[in-house]
Amino acid sequence: MGQGGRRAIAVLVGIAGLCGGAYVFFLVFFIGQGFFGQGLSLPLGLVCGSVLPIAAASLAGPRSDRGKIAMAFGLIAIAFSIVALGELQERLWPAVVAGAGTAAAALWFSAAQRRYCYTASALSLALLAASFFGWPAWRESPPTDWKDTADGSWRFYRYRLSAFIDSEDLWRIDGAPEAIEAAAGKMGMSRVNQAPGQFWWMPPYYWPRGAREGGLLFSTPNFPAGTRGPDGQHYFMLLDPVTRRAFVWAKNNF
What pLDDT does 222 receive? Predict the structure, then answer.
């Protein structure tokens, strides 16, 4: 078979790889968030979904064109990542993280540029680790269920653990402790004496790792830390008056 025929086959295989990559993305994204949170599962899903069409098209094409084919499908995969994030109403940062992994895969199939593959791989691993730990922390609008109680001066930062039918989020709220405590009461939370063990092991780098002197704990009744729990909204919160921050574990079950 001639070069032209191999290129045509590479394009067809790459298109099939894009379809398969979409399936891989959703598989890693939705299943992965149950194990290590959306901070890692979203960019990791994008990376895994991008590698498949790059590898499939490159291996199907002529050896002399593998670098160009890999770069072309790498750019297409990044474009698909941006579209997917738009559909999920997420920031574009995971596409940046995934872009490093996509570049590493594309550079591997380019003999002239392969030496840069290791740098891109290291950058990809570093960015994936940063995403898992919630870096950078992006300021968000108040969640819907807090809008009526939130003070306009508060700053909200969200780390999404999971979202499909039910959702589970970690919120950091920076604001006046007295106002946050009053809002907690309106949200159905009351003082408790102990936090569930899982509360101290959440991924964000800014999350508390143990009880703090002067810290106040609040919870909705029977907060389901280890289970899904009943339908409805459930909250567990640590309020730290010293740092003027609250850390809220929120579950919204349908």
Answer: 94
